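Render Secretion system C-terminal sorting domain-containing protein in 3D.
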Amino acid sequence: MKKITSLLLMLLFAVTAANAKYTYWGYAGKTAADLPYGSIGTRQGKAAIYIPAEVAQMYKGLKVTGMRFSLTDKAETVKAFVAKDLNGAYATEKMADMGNKGLNSVLFGKAYTITGEPFYLGYEFTSDINVVGVTDEYCEGGNFTDFGKGWTDNTKLTPDNAPALALQMRVEGTELPVDVAICGVKKVVTNVGSTYEIKGKLLNFAAAKITSLRIGYTIGNAEEQFADIEQTVAARAEDEFAITCNAPDAKGCENMKVRLVEVNGKEDAYAANNTYTSTIVTANVQDVKRVYMEEYTGLKCSWCVRGIEEISQNHTKFPGQFVAMAKHCFSGTPTELECPSYAYSAGNGFPRGSYDRRRINNLNPEDKNELYVKAFINSGSVLGIDAIANFTDDNHSKVSATAVVKFNREQPNANYGLAFAVIENDVKGYKQKNGYAGSVKSYYGWEKKGGLVALDLQHVARLGYETNEGISDVFPKQINSGDAFSHTVELNLPNNIQNYKNLKLIAFVIDRNSKYVENVVEVPIKEMQPTETAIRDINNVETPAITFLNGYIDALDFDGKISVYTVDGKAVANTNLKPGMYIVRLTKGKQTFVKKIVL
């Protein structure tokens, strides 16, 4: 779903005469999608969007002469309306000539004059099924419905943030304000030291073309930079823009604010739709194939020392291209060493080792597994992978894990999944049973050690996340060479960790068709990033104090708009928020504050 900030507008533009003085304000897409909730099999219903005061002020004195809406199927009847109160009388209304699947238009017999006060735009319908269409956008106030039990603001009550309705008002007057919205700024995935492009969309609400723009952008704590763009966008039209920038010089996930500063050398008429918040993920993805070994072991397993040695030898022989995880699951394993969340199993028997899930055996020295490791490395991979991991709380109980994947060849029928694991090194206080003790056969010196060997355990599995087949919706089915993707999850660590400083994150991509591991990376988990990103308002006013109470975020002595996003830029409803890291955006007039907080 495309994510947009509060009051960010989308237009569906029509081809009109050059002197036409009207535009459309609201939400729309190429096609309408089925409403993901509501009454199915209903005979009647209502749908509406909220026109906030800021928009009403901009168009004050102009007239709403009609509306457009998209349906997912044919309706028997549709009545369009404008209302100051959804539970009150309509200010104007009109029965539509038809209610077909797709885009429909209605012109009111009596226009509604915009007073500067907020109001609602909507329609009633009768149909054997629910025909209300939604877009692929999210916006506060963009989705009200009534299926017989009263009006519901779905953007506040739906856990996955109800998308905006496919509904727009037609605004008409002798002079329309010069208003350009910036939206659809895409998340950037780039490499350290590279150049990248900030790409987004410009929506021209005005009845005149624009020819020049100044756009500002702020990355994390950096100062705002500016780009002057000579670009023509026709009246009531949309166009894309691109700004070439240099990537940050360190890995990380940063908030990115893009701001429309000037249009045709002047300030835009409506500041609330001039700013878009997105994310830039900077990694160090290399075309390096790494082999992932999953070892299944136990302290009381006499021959499981083979796994310890296999991992050690392969790390030495293939530095930087070998990653290992050791899951303790042999009979009698102490509870604090178990890791039930790492669900993948390589079969029965101990010791057991899996190499990229292509080669699985009991780690006998005669198996010559290192030859296969070398062969897998030499075969390369269709993708490179890197990861970024940070603790998100002072107790070191939660981790924000981001994987960055870049493909180096086309994948026309891709079916990949993304998985994560957390391992701990230097786990102390245990003894390993040694089946080689006293053996006449040499095995890396283990024959000279006793039957029980005190040692620090390495690569101990502490957590697994989607380890069987991986998260299924991270990558599309059609992948082109050079395509890059990132995905962030929050991991809740178990309480059996000895030392959080010894934790590592493993991220790996699974080919869900072959069931093989395509590539893997291991990175340290670092302390949490600063809780505030220095995206400052243009007047350098002190940022309001943000509070959290009863499941929602508030700002002391601040009467503007509060919007909440996840760390990867997804807008969420400011209600019943779960613990985690969020980005809070405060907007009042031309002032914008953005702060990253941890709940």
